[in-house]
Amino acid sequence: MRSHILGKIELDRTRLAKDLGYLASVPTVEEEYDEFSNGFWKNIPLWNATGEGEDRLYRDVPGSAIATEHAARVPYLREIVQTVFVGDRLKMARTRNLKNAVVIPHRDFVELDQDVDRYFRTFMVLEDSPQAFHSNEDTVIHMRPGEIWFLDAATVHAAINFSEHSRQSLCIDFAFDGGFDEKEIFADPTVYDPGATPEIVTRKPFTQEHRDRILSLSKVIERQNFRDLLFLLSKVHFTYDVHPGDAYDWLVEIAKKADDEKMVVKAEQIREFAMEARALHDRFSLTSW
Amino acid sequence: MRSHILGKIELDRTRLAKDLGYLASVPTVEEEYDEFSNGFWKNIPLWNATGEGEDRLYRDVPGSAIATEHAARVPYLREIVQTVFVGDRLKMARTRNLKNAVVIPHRDFVELDQDVDRYFRTFMVLEDSPQAFHSNEDTVIHMRPGEIWFLDAATVHAAINFSEHSRQSLCIDFAFDGGFDEKEIFADPTVYDPGATPEIVTRKPFTQEHRDRILSLSKVIERQNFRDLLFLLSKVHFTYDVHPGDAYDWLVEIAKKADDEKMVVKAEQIREFAMEARALHDRFSLTSW
């Protein structure tokens, strides 16, 4: 199952503006998984495993998620969550914002015990932000406000906002005990309307010549800029038609050409960590050598 | 006048640990001047122009600065500020932390009306963080905890923490109406003991061959990674013996080699903005084209 549009709601701009104002006023904190991003990434939990407004970690939770104090401050978003979606499968609802930031290509849920098919993540952009994109395997998407997306977090995906303009969004996670149909997440069956045509980003061709230019970063890479180059490489696939995971292969090759075994090992480790087998709470440093 | 050590105090680790705990608990917010840094940069005002704990902007203020609510929560640091330094020239006192972050080379106070010689900035690192450095013109410094530094913010300087380990510090700004002697900032005259030998970082030679490698970034630069490359270039001088301001000259040259006039203009603008003549509240975007 790949990322696709599940339905669309018409957002009430006036009511939404008040909620966005509250979200903007919540201070940013250091994020879980912040090895995966640079720049400004702000997650605010509305429902989560504990009901605590500072608890940002997704985890398996028996029963349904608990509203945090933030949910009370965003009445319009609360109404959307409670009227559009089925509450008893809801495991987490959070707003997410990116500015001048990239979330590097990775797979989610690999740290959880259960079969990834149990998990179902939806994502809805709340503000029109033309320079903000998602990627999923070989596709780059510009999500339009109000579109409810299934986000296939178990396959390789990434996100970016090339600008400093806010890209507030609502991310809702569901989990099921066994098989399910995607329409089961909706309390309001009229919202479920799959098959809409998404705004796919037309990317430039990725050529061997471009690949060679990227690999010339072996002349510049050092341990002190290893992390910067990882983020730089992670952005290429948003503009050029190449798989997001190739960023890691380039990083490994660049490190090999630079002939620094520690960098090669770290490049292979971050590829493994992001793409394959990270463990819950397993932290990874891009800057310790 | 260049950056130099003014004196040193013995930090009480036990009392300090409690204050550091409070500072770590204060949420990070988006910072004024955040065009100048990437990564994690956290400033907490203890004394400022308004006494408001969220007011992070340095500005000229008649009389002395006002304590914020944060000052009450860090009794040891409050005691240091109030017993070591003269209160009536104090314009701002704030804690500053950097993690996995660089503050790009720049000059301060250029946006203020008055003669820069009126301003006197001191800086004291509170935690030992071996991968954190300051630079000032042709010198890179590793500040040791308890050293009270005059930081010559009116000349070209930059800062970095290559690691994710906390580098909490205390930055205190003074201003005078006319001529003054640096010892006038001290209420406790026994602390003033200039002339100590700093820990200067021995850097690698910067060669023409290295410069050519840096300029090969013209093969990779695009508008989408322009900002990333600026930060990457800003780090070079911490490891190699080259002036911090050269980062901007390389950026201009790389943009010219890449033959993108808009990038050339932006590179020249950021050089001007950081090094010469930025205006107060004048914001600059590295990502809008």
Fold topology:
Two copies of one chain form a homodimer.
Chain A: E1 4-8, H1 13-25, E2 37-48, E3 66-67, H2 75-84, E4 90-106, E5 119-125, E6 132-136, E7 139-141, E8 147-151, E9 157-161, E10 169-175, H3 208-215, H4 226-239, H5 246-257, H6 261-277
Antiparallel strand pairs in A: 1-8, 2-3, 2-4, 4-9, 4-10, 5-8, 5-10, 6-7, 6-9
Helix pairs in contact in A: 4-5, 5-6
Pfam family, one (chains A, B): Asp_Arg_Hydrox
Protein name (chains A, B): L-proline cis-3-hydroxylase
Organism (chains A, B): Amycolatopsis alba DSM 44262
Short overview:
In chain A, 26% of the residues lie in helices and 24% in strands.
Please provide a written account of the structure.
The structure is a homodimer of 289-residue chains. In chain A, helix 4 packs across helix 5 (246-257) and helix 5 packs antiparallel against helix 6 (261-277). The longest helix of chain A has 17 residues, at 261-277. Chain A folds into two domains: 4-200, Jelly Rolls (Sandwich); 208-275, Proline Oxidase, Chain: A,  Domain 2 (Orthogonal Bundle). Chain A is globular, with a radius of gyration of 19 Å. In chain A, strands 1, 2, 3, 4, 5, 6, 7, 8, 9 and 10 form a ten-stranded antiparallel sheet that branches. Chain A contains six helices and ten strands, in the order E-H-E-E-H-E-E-E-E-E-E-E-H-H-H-H. In chain A, strand 6 and strand 7 (139-141) form a beta hairpin. The first copy, chain A, is an alpha+beta fold and 289 residues long. The N and C termini of chain A lie far apart (39 Å). Chain A binds chain B through residues 27-30, 38-40, 100, 131, 162-164, 213-214, 216-217, 219-220, 222, 224-225, 227-229, 231-232, 235, 238-239, 285-288, and chain B through 27-30, 38-40, 100, 131, 162-164, 213-214, 216-217, 219-220, 222, 224-225, 227-229, 231-232, 235, 238-239, 285-288.
